[in-house]
Design brief:
Helix content is 45%, strand content 17%. With 359 residues, it is of the alpha/beta class.
């Protein structure tokens, strides 16, 4: 383990195989954290709850860990961003205590891994862009975004973009597409929306965490995509809205199913959730993209927690229950403080009832 980790660090420092080495080092860190849990429990009477997941909510999970770990030295939480698909694999194979991501589980994953998903927060995937001269806030439709990411719209002053943005002076500049590689939750949410709004996109790519993008350059993590778009003139990408806000990157409004151009905000994410979940508030795995309603932001999604329905080590059950109860009480308040959108109270009540039934 130490030799392999040292090799990964060498690769990182030399610049060779940067992405592969970083993935390896992150996975090794996760594996080491998981393997240390029994020793920590026995030697220090401390339960170390280890989770992996998407980089989309990674800043929030880092904040959650910082605040939760202050409560008691007896229960500590760690979160490592391995990506949604990889993290589902890890939790289904018994590695770690929880996982997180933006993709609903398949029936096979639920049955074979004895997994469930619980909505943790609301997130928004927004189109970010870098245009010289700050032309103003851009408007996008699902059809336009689909054509851009299919490589059919190639310049920023194309008629398709100008039609939605007649109030702006658009530059004659090639569009540089930035996308996420395979296995990412943001891919799933973005392609889910594009598949609902573009028949051609649905036919050629479909809803998937691993789309075969026909154009563009990859960005491994959400932060990488934000940085690439911020630094490359003419570029476009898609990230969770908090990355755009905190890195001061322009992001556009998106045409919703009611015919309104809407920007991502706590109000518009809650509107999308309410439109799908009310009045039952029990569709824990529901898609929130392209939700009905005049105020609904159309690229809204849950970020889910993935949990095993049976925990092999009974000593860890009370610790995990404590963490989950905190996430859906104080953790929701911290999410709001960090700029994220908390779950509506009726949904939180249903989620907490589900957690109680798992104990």
């Amino acid at each position: 383990m130490q030799i392999t980790a040292r090799f990964a660090r060498i690769c990182l420092s030399s610049g060779r195989h940067f992405t592969q080495a970083r993935r390896l080092l992150t996975w090794l860190t996760f594996a080491a954290a998981v393997s240390l849990c029994p020793q920590l429990c026995l030697a220090q009477e401390t339960i170390a709850l280890v989770g992996s997941g998407s980089s989309v909510p990674a800043p929030l999970y880092s904040k959650w860990a910082e605040q939760y770990n202050k409560r008691s030295p007896k229960i500590q939480m760690r979160y490592l961003p391995l990506g949604t698909s990889e993290s589902i694999k890890q939790i289904s194979h018994g590695n770690g205590d929880f996982a997180a991501g933006e993709m609903p589980l398949t029936a096979k994953e639920r049955s074979e891994g004895s997994l469930i998903e619980l909505p943790a927060i609301l997130i928004a995937i927004v189109p970010i862009y870098n245009l010289p001269g700050t032309p103003g806030e851009l408007r996008f439709s699902g059809a336009l975004l689909a054509d851009i990411f299919l490589g059919r719209v190639k310049t920023w002053n194309s008629p398709a973009i100008a039609k939605l943005n007649p109030h702006l002076s658009l530059p004659e500049l090639p569009i540089k597409v930035i996308y996420r590689p395979a296995g990412k939750g943001s891919n799933y949410v973005f392609t889910d929306f594009l598949s609902k709004t573009s028949a051609q996109f649905r036919e050629e790519i479909g809803t998937t965490p691993s789309p075969k993008w026909p154009v563009g350059s990859p960005a491994e993590r959400s932060a990488d995509m934000a940085e690439m778009v911020r630094s490359e003139s003419g570029s476009i990408g898609y990230v969770e809205v908090q990355y755009a806000i905190k890195m001061n990157i322009p992001y556009g409004s998106v045409l919703n199913s009611a015919g309104h151009f809407v920007k991502a905000s706590e109000r518009t994410l809650t509107a999308a959730c309410r439109a799908v979940e009310a009045p039952g508030w029990s569709k824990f795995s529901a898609s929130l993209t392209n939700a009905p309603g005049a105020e609904s932001f159309p690229i809204t999604s849950f970020s889910w927690l993935y949990l095993r329905t049976a925990v092999p080590d009974s000593r860890r059950v009370p610790a995990l229950a404590d963490l989950l109860n905190w996430i859906f009480t104080g953790g929701q308040q911290i999410a709001v403080q960090e700029g994220y959108s908390e779950l509506p109270p009726p949904l939180v009540a249903k989620v907490r009832a589900k957690i109680d039934s798992l104990k």
